[in-house]
Design goal:
heterodimer; A: mainly alpha; two-stranded antiparallel sheet; 2 strands; disordered C terminus; B: mainly alpha; about 0% strand; globular
């Protein structure tokens, strides 16, 4: 067996561009001062979106993973970047959400007339761009330590976004988030150190070939996975998420809920599928699925209990993340069918993408509602659909995807996961998926019901909200619905570049 | 695509396009005027398209439309009722500022409910079923009263539950099929050989029973149907409940049969038929009585389908569709009639009451009406055993319930001042009433395989008359019972569910308490470490 090595492919430089472009923009903002921050950020959005689309096109046209070996130094000495189909999908999804959120924030900043908002705005742009760079680095990273750096950058960019407004409660929430995320990072770093001590490499592709059943790897995997779970806020490690995501300004909540927690989930996926030996992967998968199912049921009920709209959406995030973890046992491959060839794998990836779009749309719609009425108490929102029809429609469409009602990305995802559960004869997971859908229907319906109500005293907006602001949420919600038109079968794009990693699964 | 295919596509997409056009404010302001034409392509398709024609749309829609005999019968009747009720609604709501909103929900529900009769593939069946179910919420809560809102919430809750049952049933049905979105016909043909056959059938029956309002999943029906505005009640009770009927027709394996599930359907259907009558006869409101009658009639349809499943008789689908179209038109006309009678007085009132009486008694099987035809056409299915007797008794019960309905109407209209209904409300009512007579007569030879002249035979007349007399006599006794009216609240056993509310509240509070516990630092830290040790330990034991 010839060992697989990284080799720079044509178009590999795009991966470098994806990671450093936002960083360059941050430097440019710091150099040129706050007045041109918005302009630089908007230009970077256009460029970054173009790069993400270029990577996806390159993946489709070549049918192979994109690689870039930095400085032509092979791992373990050098660092490699690699994007397969799943990474490509993540990159495009991230770019779409960041651009929509960025446009929303730009319009919203234009509405703020009071002085003193300028600093918060510049901070927002810097943090958003840094966060984008970190996310892209996670999605294309191949080196465990490099990924650690990307995760830390992600955390340090995300935490200030939580407390942009500087209120005491959001600062508390941000500190909570920071501390718990740092504990997670420590566990991850400990695991990475153990792996380096044992195998002498941190390169994922190399580890996929070297990894074998041994106690050091077992401990390392346990530490890394649990550390990442803390960052992904899976139940019962979700203590920091509801206050942080509900307290942040709307555009920040949208990126935090839609994108930031997806990075650790993505890494867990890579660790379990690429690094862990098959038996270990199966056991870790079972345990993650139990936590995922508990997360779906428990946090859906919690979402139903919330009196405030943003807290409801935040709890819904924890519930929806659960679906990504029940994928593990369902996507367990066999000798002739690798995990990424299964429908559950496609279902999980679709759930990841459609949840990101839908949840960003929901948080933006909630932001418009809070902007217009000055509060987000669900009970006092009766008739808001009259005042903000576009936001109500965006919330409703995004809700369809969360509930898993056709046509929407969420429906296709849940349908594929259900099919996988039925084929494998796993009634508990099937029941969990269905119960999660019904509970999601209940909490989304609570809001829709308020939107359609005609209260005796009509609700009036505290301030007018321009249509443009509402359209960003609607565009994301429509994108979530359009994903519902992908075919109900294993999706070829997600398998690009996975063949080389088959080794860990070979019998 | 052939002209037949185009017409089928128009039947589905025309109302949908009208609903989408409502995005334009100018169109929205006048949309009420077009609801009457929205179902016309469907009506044309039901009449003009030969049976067995289909239309196929390739990816990404992957939609198949097929017209078979049961589908055509139901599609034609439903399109006619939707159109007439639409005209009625346009006249009734001409001055209602919320009318455009009502019209949008109306068009969406219409698209779903008519599409269900012609859709041929699994995924789009689910899509249209969902559309018809959820959009009906907008019709139910339109009047925004507290009771309408309560009915709407209960309706949506149960509808979502039904969706979940249906989804898992559809997934189990097509999980093993190589095509991701198979044709309903081909997967149902494979169902009898499936290892998950019984589970799939049970879930289908639960999901569609919820939509049809079979006991004990009927609680939403007597609340929701009367809460809607009159024309919406007519289509909800006439057409939308038939979504469950077409579902059972499409997804139960009548070719191969399934005696166990046939017996279950017969049992549940009979219980529903009788309890609908018993509870309905205690109701003081005319529209609620009609809703309970709908429930009772759906029970009879379930019995029909159960017999077909029990004896592996595919012909039962046509007969069920025939019975269903009779009920659809009669019930639609009765609901519209309640609205007409409320605005009519003087000499015209007597004429209107007379027509309503004929329509109502048709449900009990009055000779020469559609009810008698439906009963005679389906009679051979039941043989001569206890089931035939039970069905006859149910017919007597229907007569008693309808007499109760007529007595309530007479009481309600006694104080009406002389007046006449608006022409555009009266006309749709007369059209539906006429269709309720003509359509079953014209279809009778094709469906039952017998001649119309046989219907006029004295023996045939007596067969349907004596149960009516029995029902009338029963009503004479029931009428004298003291404290009958209002003895059972609307929605009957929903009261039990409300008694369970404190338990649900406590459960939810408990979850909240556990969440607060987990979100404390010491607990979260402990859980984090425990999880790491647990996962590490398990992985090491494997290594």
């Amino acid at each position: 067996m010839t060992p697989l090595v990284h080799a720079t492919t044509p178009g590999g430089f795009l991966l470098v561009l994806a990671t450093i472009l936002p960083v360059c923009a941050v430097l440019a903002i710091l150099a040129s001062g706050p007045r041109s921050a918005a302009r630089i950020a908007l230009a970077t959005f256009a460029a970054g979106l173009a790069v993400a689309i270029a990577i996806a096109t390159e993946l489709i046209s070549s049918g192979k993973a994109l690689s870039y070996v930095v400085g032509a130094w092979q791992p373990p000495l050098g660092i490699a970047l690699r994007a397969d189909g799943l990474s490509g999908a993540m990159l495009v999804m991230t770019a779409l959400v960041v651009v929509a959120v960025g446009l929303f924030a730009h319009i919203q900043h234009g509405l703020q007339t009071d002085a003193g908002g300028g600093r918060a705005q510049t901070t927002f742009w810097v943090m958003l761009l840094a966060l984008w760079s970190a996310l892209n680095a996670v999605f294309v990273g191949e080196d465990l330590f490099n990924l650690y750096v990307a995760l830390e950058l992600l955390t340090f960019a995300a935490v200030p976004l939580v407390c942009l407004d500087g209120r005491a409660e959001t600062v508390t929430a941000a500190l909570r988030y920071l501390l718990f995320a740092l504990i997670g990072s420590l566990l991850y770093l400990l695991g990475a150190g153990l792996i380096y001590g044992q195998y002498g490499t941190l390169d994922l592709l190399a580890l996929a070939q070297l990894a074998r059943q041994d106690p050091a790897l077992a401990v390392a995997l346990a530490l890394m996975i649990v550390g990442l779970l803390a960052k992904a806020a899976l139940f019962p490690l979700h203590l920091w998420l509801p206050p942080a995501h509900a307290g942040a300004p709307a555009p920040a909540s949208a990126v935090l809920s839609a994108l930031v927690i997806k990075a650790p989930v993505f890494l867990i996926l890579r660790l379990v599928l690429d690094v862990a030996p098959p038996q270990a992967a199966a056991i870790a998968g079972q345990m993650l699925a139990v936590l995922g199912a508990a997360s779906i049921l428990f946090c859906s009920v919690m979402a139903l209990r919330q009196a405030r709209l943003k807290l409801m959406i935040a709890y819904s995030t924890v519930a929806q993340i659960g679906y990504l973890f029940i994928v593990f046992p369902l996507a367990a491959g066999s000798a002739d069918l690798p995990p990424w060839g299964t429908i559950a794998w496609t279902g999980g990836a679709l759930q990841l993408v459609s949840h990101a779009l839908a949840k960003a749309a929901m948080f933006l719609a909630a932001g418009v509602i809070a902007e217009a009425f000055g509060h987000d108490r669900i009970a006092d929102l009766g008739g808001f659909g009259r005042v903000l029809p576009i936001s109500a429609a965006a919330f409703g469409l995004a809700g369809l995807s969360l509930m898993g009602i056709p046509p929407s990305g969420g429906f296709v995802a849940k349908c594929l996961l259900l099919t996988a559960a039925v084929i494998q004869g796993n009634p508990w997971l099937a029941a969990t998926i269905l119960a999660g859908g019904v509970l999601a229907g209940a909490y989304v319906f609570r809001v829709i019901d308020k939107a359609l109500a005609v209260p005796t005293v009509p609700i009036v907006a505290r301030r007018a909200v321009p249509r443009r602001l509402e359209c960003a949420a609607l565009a994301l919600a429509i994108a979530a619905v359009l994903i519902g038109f992908v075919p109900l079968r294993p999706f070829g794009f997600l398998q690009i570049g996975r063949d080389g990693l088959n080794l860990a699964w070979a019998p | 695509m052939s002209s037949a295919g185009l017409l089928l596509a128009a039947a589905l997409f025309f109302p949908l396009v009208l609903a989408i056009c409502c995005l334009s404010a100018r169109f929205r302001a006048r949309v009420l005027a077009v609801v009457v034409i929205a179902p016309l392509p469907a009506l044309a398709a039901a009449v003009l398209v030969p049976e067995g024609r289909f239309a196929f749309f390739p990816a990404p829609f992957r939609l198949t439309l097929v017209l078979d005999q049961p589908g055509a019968i139901l599609l034609g009747g439903a399109a006619l009722l939707w159109s007439a009720a639409g005209a009625y609604a346009a006249s009734l709501m001409a001055r209602d500022p919320a009318a455009p909103r009502f019209a949008i929900w109306w068009l969406l529900t219409l698209t779903g409910s008519l599409g269900l009769f012609i859709v041929g593939d699994v995924v789009n069946f689910y899509l249209l079923f969902t559309l018809a179910s959820l959009a009906a919420y907008g019709l139910i809560v339109h009047e925004q009263s507290a009771s309408a809102h309560r009915a709407g919430v209960i309706y949506v809750g149960l509808a979502l539950l039904g969706e979940a049952f249906l989804l898992i049933a559809l997934v189990m049905l097509s999980a093993m099929h190589p095509d991701a979105n198979p044709q309903i016909r081909s997967v149902v043909a494979e169902l009898p050989a499936s290892p998950m056959r019984d589970g799939t059938l049970a879930l289908f029956i639960i999901g569609f029973a919820l939509k049809m309002g079979l006991v004990p999943l009927h609680v939403w029906l007597p609340l929701a149907h009367p809460a809607a505005p009159t024309p919406a009640s007519a289509v909800l009770s006439g057409v939308v409940v038939k979504a469950g009927v077409i579902g059972l027709i499409r997804f139960l394996p009548f070719e191969a049969g399934a005696p166990l599930w046939g017996s279950v359907l017969i049992g549940v259907g009979l219980v529903t038929a009788y309890s609908g009558v018993i509870v309905g006869i205690t109701q003081p409101r005319a529209k609620t009585v009609l809703a309970y009658s709908t429930m009772s009639q759906m029970g009879l349809l379930a019995v029909l389908l159960g017999v077909g499943l029990d004896t592996a008789d595919p012909a039962v689908t046509n007969l069920t569709a025939y019975y269903a179209v009779h009920h659809m038109l009669v019930k639609g006309a009765l609901f519209l009639g309640v609205g007409i009678l409320a605005t009519t007085g003087g000499r015209r009132l007597r004429l209107a009451l007379l027509l309503t009486a004929v329509l109502a008694l048709s449900l009990g099987g009055m000779p020469l009406t559609s009810g008698a035809l439906a009963k005679l056409a389906t009679k051979p299915l039941f043989g001569y055993g206890w089931l035939a007797g039970a069905m006859t008794l149910a017919g007597a019960g229907s007569t008693a319930l309808m007499l109760h309905f007529l007595l309530i109407l007479r009481r309600d209209t006694a104080g009406n001042t002389a007046g006449s209904p608006a022409l555009w409300q009266l006309l749709p009512w007369l059209v539906v009433a006429a269709a309720a007579f003509l359509i079953p007569w014209s279809l009778y030879p094709a469906v039952s395989g017998e001649t119309v002249s046989g219907l006029l035979h004295p023996e045939a007349l007596w067969k349907v008359t004596w149960p009516m007399l029995l029902g009338a006599v029963a009503m004479l006794f029931v009428h004298r019972l003291p404290q009958r009216l209002g003895a059972i609240p609307e929605g009957d056993i929903i009261v039990l569910a409300q008694a369970a509310q404190p338990v649900a509240r406590r459960f939810s509070d408990r979850i909240g308490g556990i969440d607060a516990h987990f979100r404390r630092w010491p607990v979260a830290g402990f859980v984090l470490i425990a999880l790491a040790i647990l996962l590490g330990g398990v992985l090491m034991l494997q290594a």
